[in-house]
Amino acid sequence: MNNSFLLKRYHDKEFRPFIHAADINKRVKEIANEINEEYENKAPLFLGILNGAFMFASDLFKHLTIECSITFVKLASYEGTSSTGKVLTPIGLEENISGRDIIIVEDIVDTGNTMHAFLKTLEGKQPNSIKICTLLQKPDALEHDIKMDYVGFDIPDKFVIGYGLDYDGLGRNIPAIYKIITTEEDLHRFEDD
């Protein structure tokens, strides 16, 4: 079966479907239910990490029934298809988080360099607790001992786009997750699916 019409091309790269929108939506609801149970009567503050987590944070928030609030923080560590290791100062964290229960909402954690640095910044502001909620996690790429409290999907160490994640600004609006095609074998495997 030829699925080439499902391929997406952005700039100089091709991507193939990886995680379907229906699977993402189901998992987001499951995570929201877990948070609803664990944070009943606690009123946590969600910190959505821009730009990538905007879609995940929005969909997650629709399914939360607890008292809670959300704000967004801008961090950046990507240029092209690989993590640069550069961590910028968080912009937009103006709330007083002292004594608050914090849930970081991230699109993807791969090396963990950004999250590691951001956790240090947050811990200095003396919140009551910090938990991490990420849609995607790359266990094989993780370079820091960071506990992910809520994980949508564990994925291999491949570059992905869609559902808020981009390749040099493009692809964020795809409602599913697409994986980069890096070899002829990737393409043939996709065509056989």
Describe the structure.
- With 193 residues, the protein is an alpha/beta fold.
- The protein has helices spanning 21-38, 54-62, 113-123, 184-192, and strands at 8-10, 13-19, 45-50, 69-74, 78-79, 82-83, 101-109, 129-137, 150-154, 160-161, 177-180.
- It is built from 4 helices and 11 strands; from the N terminus they run ββαβαββββαββββα.
- The strands form 3 sheets. Strands 4-3-7-8-9 form a 5-stranded parallel beta sheet. A 4-stranded antiparallel beta sheet has the order 1-2-11-10. A two-stranded antiparallel ribbon has the order 5-6.
- The chain starts with 7 loop residues before the first strand and ends with a helix.
- The mean pLDDT is 87.
Cross-sheet strand order for the largest sheet: 4-3-7-8-9
CATH class: Alpha Beta
Structural class: alpha/beta
Quaternary state of the chains: single chain
Q: Regions with pLDDT < 50 over 5+ consecutive residues?
A: none
Number of domains: 1
Largest β-sheet summary: 5 strands, parallel
Q: What's the helical proportion of residues? A: 10-25%
- Strand portion: 25-35%
Distance between the termini: 7 Å
Could you say what the CATH topology is called?
Rossmann fold
What's the architecture, going by CATH? 3-Layer(aba) Sandwich
The helix count comes to 4
